[in-house]
Amino acid sequence: MEQELTMYASPLSRDPEAMYRQIDVVGRTTNADGPALVQLLYEELVRALRVAAWAAEHRQFKAKSERVTRATAILFALEAGLDFDKGGDLSVTLSRLYAGARRQVVDASLGHDPQPFRDVATSMEEIAQAWRTIRAG
Q1: CB 46 within 8 Å of CB 125
Q2: Rounded Cα gap, residues 137 and 131, in angstroms
Q3: Phi then psi dihedrals of residue 32, to 5 deg
Q4: 70: which residues sit within 8 A by CB, 6+ positions away?
Q5: Phi-psi bin for 2: left (phi > 0), alpha (psi -120 to 50), beta?
Q6: Cβ(8)–Cβ(15) under 8 Å?
Q7: pLDDT greater than 70 at residue 112
Q8: Is the dihedral of CA 105, 21, 126, 54 positive or negative?
């Protein structure tokens, strides 16, 4: 039992903010429907890209690597969730967009320029806003 508590306490003591975000995400996904989960993925993607940009700018290589990994995983998840039968051309377009964004993120991860991360984040924010508008309407 003590070993289990240590397992959970260790990450919390190392990065309480990350642990809080993880708990927040789990809480928000528990009762979320498909569209709400997609919205959450967009939010998390933009956050990861913004932190990657900051980390690149400040030469925080570990943080940049973690956020690049998270961003690419989210882009894969968004693409995997596309329904090409129901979504038709929109699904094809989004698939291409996600693949291009992944390439940009991976290419940017090899350097120290934060701008490519910001560019992808801005594009994804625009899509997230359109998604919010569609869901609200």
Answers
A1: yes
A2: 10
A3: -80, 145
A4: 44, 48
A5: alpha
A6: no
A7: yes
A8: negative
